[in-house]
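Database export, one record per block. Field names are fixed; values are copied verbatim from the stored entry.
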Amino acid sequence: MILPLDAYPGPNSNSDANLKPAPHPEPHPNQVLQFATGAARLPSDVEMAQGWTFSIQASTSFPTIEPTPSNGLTEPAMCARASTCSKTIYLPPYDGMDALQRGLDCSLMDGGFGTA
């Protein structure tokens, strides 16, 4: 299940010192938008009226980052890919919200044009 961009949580404010910090800060919706489209903001009303689109597609080919002591992952992260020309993000078959969050965290931190 994919949520609207504004439904993703913001930075974690839990200050419990016993919790290990996440390997990467949680992505901000603008980071996801920029990763997928190359734009850091939503389009104007004029652009929307001209047919601006954003696509989310399923992907069967994706890079996976395995856990290591240096990256702080406890499970593999399946990374998203993006095509900014077609404004499309390609998501692996995540098995839940934790896997989606882990995959997006790694994609946005290590990502670039085309693939994460």
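Remark 1: Residues 24 and 105 are 6 Å apart (CA to CA).
Remark 2: The beta strands are 55-58, 64-65, 77-78, 81-83, 88-91.
End of record.
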